[in-house]
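Example 5.3 — Polyisoprenoid-binding protein
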Amino acid sequence: MNRNFRPRALALAGAAVLAAAGAAIPSAWAQVDAAKSSVTAVARQIGVPMEGKFKKFDATVAFDPAKLASSSAKMEIDVASFEIGDAETTKELKGRDWFDAAKYPKAVFQSTSIKGGAAGKYDVAGKLTIKGKTVDIVVPASYRQEGGVQVFEGVLPIKRNAFNIGDGEWKDTSVVADEVQVKFHIVTPARKQG
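Solution (predicted structure tokens):
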């Protein structure tokens, strides 16, 4: 039973990392409000959706909708902070076949460009590094300002095998699906006007 949870949790963790990385793109050189923000990942194990959450992540973002060329973001996620609700499975996910947290403690996203789309929608391109592998990704994100905060949300599908998340017997996608949906809700202080 533990093996059934392990792949699922890891896939979720990988997704969460991606989501968190892409999600935190916009803000006026502000730190993410971790208490109000969340990064979760949903993967399917034998067709059943499983969800997990990263408890620790940090980002520095600079975002101005009128100055996209100079907007940027960097996010780091503590992969050992991933939790899926089962202590034994959570521990497995930190191991070599999954995140190998002892060797690769951080997942990092660094934006390279931000392009606007329809009202409040943005495509954030950048490089995501997980478990020593760097992949170019584009994160679809929505943006809105609410009072004194900026809110960025979205869902990013990733392929866990692209990052070797779930090595060995877990590479088989018939048990744990390759695609992971990373959901993010990132809150930062609103940018200063002027």
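Remark. The domain at 2-189 is CATH 2.40.128.110 (Lipocalin).
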